[in-house]
């Protein structure tokens, strides 16, 4: 595991073979006896619980070795009721994600114990083994209150699985764009809290000893716990940042249309501040309740940033495009300051964008002013008007609860 953090400058990305040996060799030697050797008691042989770890290190830490449990396939099969369809939380490029329970006293008894999310590789997945490795390499050693915790993994024969903490409130995407009685719109203060938490997670990645470029920052990858604490998930595309002698990493363009920075899309040059651009896009989504990319909007409005940017620089124009789900109950000065911050994050030239540390500081200053949300003059208009371009939601963050079925919106296509 350690080699992924100490790769030579000329090869900052771990290779697809060999570098997981310090952890994964335990599974390759004896998969037949894995269930017996590992057991199903999570507290007995793993050294962690689903709720511990981050409290002692509020500023995060990089672990010297991954603190991960090696699960048997039988154990995860039992936890998810044999990967039953009604346990599916969502589906992404990697494969399906299932809800499960780990119960120390009664293994296999569902409905009690510790809730988990189990991501199971689809054998036909294009993302596959390399991104499974990336999750283990990066998230397995990163510990921060605003990063989703990877609890463990399973590698038996052709079965590749990842086990995460379960996030009760689902994804930011769900709350901004979902619909139905079980999807709650977010109040202004919660939106600001989420933005700050996600910014802290990115800032930690960027300022760690080995700078990590997240590369796929978007609303569906921001998950929320029971108190709406934001945590960044899905490190399948993460890369080590450039060395001191380099300004960028050159890599194959991957990510999501609408969120990817222009310099990365155009050249394949990936900078730490490429993530800042994606954060700016999410800020605009938080303000407007509109998707980064929506082909169902009128011509000229498909890509949110291109259409909305002129509206972010004037308070009068900003008011017209604020999320109608807020019903006008938001502090106008704070909203405008966040719009200004979003514009800085979306600067075409990456050098002109703020660092994520500066973004966190700006958002915390906005929060500290404690400006009270204003009450709209005509509330009935807000109650009867739907938000701009809202569409049914099909793709959900795979670690989040499934709130409703039958959604048919196609997410922005991946850059791959």
Automatic annotation (TrEMBL):
Pfam families: PK_Tyr_Ser-Thr
Compositionally biased residues, Low complexity: 25-37
Keywords: ATP-binding, Cell membrane, Kinase, Membrane, Nucleotide-binding, Serine/threonine-protein kinase, Transferase
Positions contributing to ATP binding: 120
Chain spans, region Disordered: 1-60, 365-416
GO cellular component: plasma membrane
GO molecular function, one term: protein serine/threonine kinase activity
Extent of Polar residues compositional bias: 10-24, 38-52
Domain Protein kinase: 83-366
Location within or outside the cell: Cell membrane
Top-level lineage group: Eukaryota
Subcellular location, principal: membrane
Biased composition (Basic residues): 379-397
UniProt EC number: 2.7.11.1
Ranges annotated as biased composition (Basic and acidic residues): 365-378
Family as reported in the entry's similarity comment: Belongs to the protein kinase superfamily. Ser/Thr protein kinase family.
Free-text function comment from the UniProt entry: May be involved in plant defense signaling.
Stated name of the protein: non-specific serine/threonine protein kinase
